Amino acid sequence: MLDLTDPAFVDDPYPAFAAARAVAPVQWDEGLGMWLAYGHAEANAVLRTRALGRIWTDREPAERFGQFNLVHRNAILEMEPPDHTRLRRLISTAFARGHVERLRPWVEELAGRLVDGMVEESAGSAPVDLFAGMAEQLPVAVIAELLGVPEADRHLLRPWSNAIVKMYEYGRTTEVEDAAETAAAEFVEYLRGLAAERRRVPGDDLLTHLVTARDADGDRLTEDELVTTCVLLLNAGHEATVNVTGNGLLALLQHPGELARLRADPALLPTAIEELMRFDSPLQLFERTATADVEIGGVTVQRGQKIAALLGSGNHDPAVFAEPDRLDVGRTENPHISFGAGVHFCIGAPLARVELQASFSALLDRTSRIELPAPPRRRPEFVIRGLAELPIVLHR
Questions:
Q1: What are phi and psi of 218, to 5 degrees?
Q2: Residue 152 pairs with which residues in a beta bridge?
Q3: In this predicted structure, what is the pLDDT of residue 81?
Q4: Would the pLDDT of 216 be above 60?
Q5: pTM check: above 0.70
Q6: Which of 14, 30, 89, 141 reaches 20 to 30 Å from 221, CA-CA?
Q7: Distance separating alpha carbons of residues 321 and 336, to the nearest angstrom
Q8: pLDDT at 123 > cutoff 80
């Protein structure tokens, strides 16, 4: 049984995953009250099997979680076909306007500016925090630019997102739940106002295109779907990138041979990004519910039971990855599941890759050496895996 609140487990869950995989690829966890898929094939099946769905149930009492429930009730991540198909088609129509490639030069320029600022602040001796200096700033700025959020309002987004995603963890406090509802209410109110402004004054941004998106049948997003989609894009669209940046740089600093290899051969950067996502996954657990009895990994998940894909465990399965606990920036056989799979494969994956390649390219191009002067501080949550602080010293 996993203890998701044990600091030692949160700090490094991979040995526990390996021990569990050696027993069975799918196991019942009495503490969590659900099946857990530890193996890559089994976690992949959880993500892809149509008899396993994301079935949203409103948090109770409804009057306490009204806005949090609204955000998730209308979210593509909590839907299954045919509703999921309709909503994803409308969102993809807006994304297809070339927004990601339009932003690539801007993202690269911003990453360079942020790294230059950290290098100047560090001056080869003073520690600077990667998160305050770049990891949080860049993805928030990018998703805000993509959607057309005014620069003066962008400081609001990260606190709202942080509060909301803490609701996905286990063992929440009342204070965490109240903060999530408050954040959801403020976020929804803000986005309703911004969407209304885009209807009055359209722009060349994703929010404008979401407002106007229609499919071949003339269908369009409802107001709640529009707001919920923006919340999801802002939350998921930067949380993963923030945490891959922190987890990934820490992994490279702890494997100096691989860092040197990447510096010597920048052409390895695309495969290195995929390896960093695999090596220390930013999302560790993704729940689904059986809509009918279904067999996964030799066990029967009964209708109504939950089963979770342990993405980090699947990404370290030796049946799929040679020497899975070894960081290999040149790994080409890398079918990691950090972006999900099946109908819920991350719609923002291309944008995340652009951001991560820009961030790590700027860090390598604009420094000659990066040092870790003190241990990092890890966030205490398990599901969203990341660091709270990563002090580094940068040498030009």
A1: 85, 5
A2: none
A3: 83
A4: no
A5: yes
A6: 141
A7: 9
A8: yes
Structure tokens at 134: 């770049």
CA 194 to chain centre: 24
Residues 26, 35: Cα–Cα separation, whole Å: 7
**What is the SS3 assignment for the chain?**
CCCCCCHHHHHCCHHHHHHHHHHCCEEEECCCCEEEECCHHHHHHHHHCCCEECCCCCCCCCCCCHHHHHHHHCCHHHCCCCHHHHHHHHHHHHHCCCHHHHHHHHHHHHHHHHHHHHHHHHCCCCCEEHHHHHHCHHHHHHHHHHHCCCHHHHHHHHHHHHHHHHHHCCCCCHHHHHHHHHHHHHHHHHHHHHHHHHHHCCCCCHHHHHHHCECCCCCECCHHHHHHHHHHHHHHHHHHHHHHHHHHHHHHHHCHHHHHHHHHCHHHHHHHHHHHHHHCCCECEEEEEECCCEEECCEEECCCCEEEEEHHHHCCCCCCCCCCCCCCCCCCCCCCCCCCCHHHCCCCHHHHHHHHHHHHHHHHHCCCEEECCCCCEECCCCCECCEEECEEEEEC
| Tokens linked to 173 | 């406090």
Amino acid letter at 11? D
| Whole-angstrom distance, CA of residue 391 vs CA of residue 389 | 6
CB 370 within 8 Å of CB 253: yes
Handedness of CA 359, 360, 365, 366 (dihedral sign): positive
Domains and CATH numbers, the chain: 7-51+60-395 (1.10.630.10)
Measured distance CA(322)–CA(55) in Å, rounded: 35
Look at the alpha carbons of 298, 55, 209, 135 in this order and tell me if their dihedral is positive or negative.
negative
328-346: per-residue pLDDT in tens? 999 999 999 999 998 888 8
Number of Cα atoms under 13 Å in the Cβ half of residue 43: 28
Structural contact between residues 199 and 208, judged by C-beta atoms closer than 8 angstroms: no
Count CB atoms within 10 A of the CB of residue 370: 21
Sign of CA dihedral 212, 215, 217, 223: negative
